[in-house]
Amino acid sequence: MSNISFADFQKMDIRVGEIKSAEDVEGADKLYKVMVDIGGEERQLVAGIKQHYSKEELPGKKVLVLTNLDPKKIRGVESRGMVLCAHNEDRSQLVCTTVEKDIAIGSRVS
After folding, report:
1. I need a surface site. Which of 64, 78, 81, 104 has the fewest CB within 10 A?
2. Is 7 a domain residue?
3. Residue 6 falls within a domain, yes or no?
4. What range defines the domain where residue 82 resides?
5. What is the number of structural domains in the chain?
6. pTM of the shown model
């Protein structure tokens, strides 16, 4: 993997978001459509976390969200950001990144 400059890192807008809801994406066995509050704004995202989380355990979870990713349609659903997750090499384990202590929704990662 190649390095990026600190200036490139500063272009990324990563915020603490709270998942409000999760729904299946029709015809997709790995995707949820999630609504995430990123501090005064709710964003619709498509997240490939369905095999690792149930819909019922996601609401209320505080996750890190890349908010300034170009919007993209995935399976006909517009995604306006990305929930950041960690995975092992073969992707058999995946964990959404969360915050260690309580912090306001919309707080920036720097």
Report:
1. 104
2. no
3. no
4. 16-96
5. 1
6. 0.93
